[in-house]
UniProtKB/TrEMBL annotation:
This is DNA-binding protein H-NS. It comes from Escherichia coli. Gene3D superfamilies: H-NS histone-like proteins (1.10.287.1050), Histone-like protein H-NS, C-terminal domain (4.10.430.10). It is found in: Cytoplasm, Nucleoid. Residues 97-102 bind DNA. Pfam families: Histone_HNS, Histone_HNS_N. The keyword Transcription regulation applies. SMART domains: HNS. GO terms for molecular function: bent DNA binding; DNA-binding transcription repressor activity; minor groove of adenine-thymine-rich DNA binding; protein dimerization activity; structural constituent of chromatin; transcription cis-regulatory region binding. InterPro entries: H-NS-like_N, H-NS_C_dom, H-NS_C_dom_sf, Histone_HNS, Histone_HNS_N. The keyword DNA-binding applies. Residues 72-120 form the DNA-binding protein H-NS-like C-terminal domain. Residues 1-31 form a coiled coil.
Length: 122
């Protein structure tokens, strides 16, 4: 509706700009399709090479997955650094890592104790 009110010169200018944008979009989409096609061709080529060498692609994927999942190293457990008696009268230990146990925090806040009071003497 608004296009009828524009001058012919303005409409032709808009048409040129629109054609440029459409052509650029077509080029981008064809380039993306070519990349996908090339990747698919390469994957098929590698698959054929594996089969020619007597390797099942699924076997390769399974072995890679097994290697990936087994590579996470475990951190050594830290020795206990503090000892305290909980509400049930049980002696517990704390490494000093993570949140401060509620019993220790309460003793520090209300009784004025320090962490050194809970240190395990060795």
């Amino acid at each position: 509706a608004q296009a009828r009110e524009c001058t012919l010169e303005t409409l032709e200018e808009m048409l040129e700009k629109l054609e440029v944008v459409v052509n650029e979009r077509r080029e981008e989409e064809s380039a993306a399709a070519a990349e996908v096609e090339e990747r698919t061709r390469k994957l098929q080529q590698y698959r054929e090479m594996l089969i020619a060498d007597g390797i099942d692609p699924n076997e390769l994927l399974n072995s890679l997955a097994a290697v990936k999942s087994g590579t996470k190293a475990k951190r050594a457990q830290r020795p206990a650094k503090y000892s305290y008696v909980d509400e049930n009268g049980e002696t517990k230990t704390w490494t000093g890592q993570g949140r401060t146990p509620a019993v220790i925090k309460k003793a520090m806040d209300e009784q004025g104790k320090s962490l050194d009071d809970f240190l395990i003497k060795q």
